[in-house]
Input
Amino acid sequence: MLTEKDFIATTYSSLESANFEWSAPSNIALVKYWGKKEQVSSIPGEKSEQIPANPSISFTLNQCKTITKLGVLKKSDTKDFSFDLLFEGKPKEDFKPKIQKFFERIEVYCPYLKEYHFTIDTQNTFPHSSGIASSASGMAALAVSIMSLEKAITPSLSDDYFNAKTSFLARLGSGSACRSIKGEVVIWGNHAKTANSSDLFGVAFSEVHEYFKNFQDTILLVDKGEKQVSSTVGHDLMHNHPYAEQRFGQAHENLTAIKEVLTSGNIAAFIKIVESEALTLHAMMMTSMPYFILMKPNTLEIINKIWNYRNETQIPVCFTLDAGANVHVLYPSTVKEKVMQFIQNELVVYCQNGQYICDQIGTGAKSN
Ligand code: DP6
Output
C-alpha cells in the first residue's frame, strides 16, 4: 500500500521549457464525503492534510470540466514559487492564494516546483458561477498538468504511479478532486470491504453493471449564487457534530451496499442509497452548530416532482445534491428521451433562467 513517503519525488532531471494541456472533469458523489479527520503523516513531523472522515464514491462526469494549459519555464533561482494565473484568458488575482497554498502543500512531494516559472491558463466548460463546484475539476486539471512535468523529468514513472500520485496531489487541492482523475466510478477513503482503497487517493471501481454505462446526470441550476458556506467550513462543522460518528459509520455501510448494487444493476436499491445520502448530507448541515440550509424552495419542488413522476411512471429516475441548491437528476440512458421531456415540461420552470446542463458518466482526465 502506498504511503505519503512513496509520493516524494527523489531522482529527477530538469528541463528548460515545456507546455502541457489537460482537461479534467467534475464528479458527483453517490456516497458523500463530508468531514475530515486529523492524522499523523508517515513523514516524520508532518500532519496529513485532507484526510476524509469517511470513504466516498462518485460518478465521474464528462461535459463539466476544466481545461488547463500549463506553461513551464526554467528560472535562475529556486527561492519562491513563481506563477501567473489566467482564467478564461484574463489574469485572475483572486485565485492566486488558493494556488499558492496548493503549491505549499505539495512541495514536499514535488520538490522541483521552485525551479520553474509556471503560466497556468485555465477555463471551465460550464457557465461561470453556475453553482457547480469547479474546485474538483480545477484542482484535478492542475494536478495532472504538474504530473506531466514530473513525468517529463522522471521518464521511468509507471502509469499506475502517475495516476495514483495525480489523485494524491489533487486531493491536497480539494478532497473531491482526487475522484476526478481516472475511472468512471471512483472510491476514495479507507474502506474495509474495498481491498485497494486509500485515504490518500482515489481508486477506480470497475465492476459496474452494463445498466450504469452511459448513466445520465442532468444538472438543474436552481441557484447560481455564491455559496453561503464554503465546503471547507462545512467539513469543519463535522468536528463535535452530535451525529458525526453515526454518519461516518453509515457512509461505510452505504459504500458496501452501493458497490454491490452497482455490480448487480439493482436500480431500486441504488435510488434508495443515493437519495438518502443526498438528504443526509443536507441533514448534517442543518444539525451542525452553526446550522445552515443550502437547499432552496425550488430544490424541494424538484425533489417532489421527481418522486411523483417516478411513482406514476415507474421510470427509474432519482436525484442527488451537492453542497448547494442545484439538483443532479440521475437516470439510465435508455429512458433519456422520456426523462428529458419530463425535465423540460415540469422541472425547467424551477431552474434559474431555465438553465440546466446535460452530462453523463465519463472516464476522467485527458491530455489534449
Ligand atoms: C458535498 O472536495 O469541495 O461535494 O476537500 O475542502 O476542497 P475540500 O471539499 P470538497 O467537498 C465536497 C463535498 C461534497 C461531497 C462530495 O463530493 O463527496
